[in-house]
């Protein structure tokens, strides 16, 4: 089961997003459904990078949730910008297609402090403990 990092309410409070930011026909309930879907997607991205799901009783949860909320805020900003500017941005000399991958490009780096570190311990053959039955 996927642990969800954040709530639609938290994203709304952080970004000030409203249904009218996307469409005059979108309801607040529809916006919440979209936000929940995005929370699920970002939560999967986080769990994949951490190679685990962080439960809300884990001391790392608040930090992981903060990373998720910042990432979700970037996604909201991207979506609003995409609605305003459509798919193509026209600069002074170039046309640039908006790229959603920028939203998660720093996610692995931001999650580094919350990843569990595994320490490999190797025992060389010279360090093998003598068998109790052979010692004298």
Helix share of residues?
40-55%
Count every beta strand, where a strand is a DSSP E run of 2 or more residues: 2
Count of individual helical segments: 4
H/E order of the elements?
Answer: HHHEEH
Oligomer: single chain
In what order do the strands lie side by side in the largest sheet?
1-2
Structural class: mainly alpha
Strand content: under 5%
What is the alpha-carbon Rg in Å?
23 Å
* General shape: elongated
Task: State the gist of this model.
With 136 residues, the protein is mainly alpha-helical.
Please provide a written account of the structure.
There is one protein chain. The protein is mainly alpha-helical and 136 residues long. The protein is built from four helices and two strands. The protein has helices at 8-15, 28-50, 61-85, 107-111; strands at 88-90, 95-97. Helix 2 packs across helix 3. The radius of gyration is 23 Å and the shape is elongated. The N and C termini lie far apart (54 Å).
């Amino acid at each position: 089961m996927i642990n969800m990092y954040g709530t639609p309410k938290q994203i709304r409070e952080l970004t000030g997003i409203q249904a009218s930011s996307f469409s005059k026909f979108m309801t607040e309930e529809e916006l919440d459904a979209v936000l929940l879907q995005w929370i699920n997607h970002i939560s999967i991205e986080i769990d994949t990078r951490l190679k685990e799901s962080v439960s809300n009783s884990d001391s790392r949860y608040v930090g992981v949730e903060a990373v998720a909320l910042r990432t979700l805020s970037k996604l909201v900003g991207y979506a609003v910008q995409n609605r305003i500017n459509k798919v193509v941005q026209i600069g002074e000399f170039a046309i640039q297609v908006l790229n959603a991958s920028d939203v998660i490009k720093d996610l692995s780096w931001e999650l580094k402090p919350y990843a569990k570190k595994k320490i490999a311990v190797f025992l060389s053959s010279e360090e093998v403990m003598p068998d109790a039955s052979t010692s004298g």
